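Feature request disguised as a bug report, sorry. It would help if multi-protein outputs had a clear separator. Right now it looks like this:
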Amino acid sequence: MRAISSIAGVALMLAVTVALTSAFACFGLNVLQSPPYVCCLSGHIVAEGTGKRTDQIVEIVHAGGDSVNMEEVKIKVEVYRSGELERACILKNFPWERNKFISPENIEGDQMIDRSRNQKYLGELAGDGIWSVGEKIGFRIKEDHTNPNRGIKLRVGDVVRVVIIHTPSGCVIADKEIVVDVS
């Protein structure tokens, strides 16, 4: 009996060791991919101004921390009015080229982002694909008077929440709520 108990004990310890090693290999390697650290953001939105394409622009400024490779992020955008979620989408497949039409595949959810060709405020504005301290990323929330289910006319007091997610790790690296103002 003792010989069998000792063999069973060794086999059990070996099985536990293999299971733990496999678990670390499958799950632990993702932990090694640490997200960049972005300590704070500043942002601004103007609801109305000239009535042209300079309205409803969301600009986010990287105010400190690590540089961010835009190929490794997706951006969740939510618009709240009186505390209720009105529109939401996810922007992906960065970096986006300026002066090109943005493909609908780059936007999941409500198609509320202006995808027009000369959209200088779309994506990472320095154009090198790296979002660094002092640089802006931005986009324009379109107004769609013909189909209000697509665009949205921002009002003073609306809140636009921008969540930047590091896709390799799945971690949120920035979360900013911006209140829409008049200037």
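(second protein starts here, but nothing in the output says so)
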Amino acid sequence: MVGDVAVTPDEDARGVVPRRTVLRGVGAIVAVTGLVAAGCARDDGPDELEAPLAAARSDAAAATAAAAAFPQLAASLTPVADARRAHADALAAEVRRARPDRATAVDAATAPTLPPAPPPASAAAAVSALRGSLGTARDAAGALALTTASYRCGLVTSIAASCAGQATVLA
């Protein structure tokens, strides 16, 4: 205590903050700024959700084609096609929101570039192929949920759960 003023270890008797304390503060600010900038950096490549988006679109198209080729499967495959279309829409919206630079690529992927694949030879083959694709999508979404940002985790895990349920219903 100097006079009536209490002196903290970070101040001298004149009320001036020592240079070492200032340098520590500046160093901390620089370190935090660097970490924040690194966390905000974007890749120039595709968004991590583009692969599940392509799978959802592919599954929706396959389910729609199989339902058209085998009318007896329409009641069970139409909900799968609708759900996978909804998954694709949600994934595309998230990519557009988070990565506006990828919006053109995401929207261009909706345009058919190849003729549709021929439907499987039988109804059983169609269901089996779709069930396998749904299982692959479930596993990929589950793995992605472990590494993606927390705000995307809910979307990805709900897609994984939906694919698991759809694959089970088709079994």
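Even a blank line would do. Unrelated, but nice: The CA atoms of residues 19 and 98 lie 42 Å apart.
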